[in-house]
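Tip: read the tokens left to right.
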């Protein structure tokens, strides 16, 4: 399998930038499924979520996690995954 994967990777990397982007998008969609909503609807939803989170931080109701703790947790997850 590694040989096939390496061959596919080499072919993909030889594609022009725009086609590599399209391929990456198609692969991600194959894992996650199509996005629900138009790009504009998704952007609006993110804007609303960001505003909500900022309001929580400003109000002092958000639970903030120090970056050192976040990165340590990510490192631990990656180690456990064998990466």
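Filled-in amino acids:
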């Amino acid at each position: 399998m590694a040989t096939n994967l390496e061959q596919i990777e080499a072919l993909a990397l030889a594609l022009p930038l725009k086609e590599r982007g399209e391929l990456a998008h198609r692969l991600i969609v194959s894992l996650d499924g199509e996005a629900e909503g138009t790009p504009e609807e998704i952007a609006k939803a993110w804007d609303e979520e960001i505003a909500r989170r900022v309001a929580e931080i400003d109000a002092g109701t958000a639970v903030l996690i120090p970056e050192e703790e976040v990165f340590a947790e990510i490192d631990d997850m990656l180690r456990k995954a064998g990466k």
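The CA atoms of residues 19 and 25 lie 10 Å apart. The chain is about 75% helix and 0% strand.
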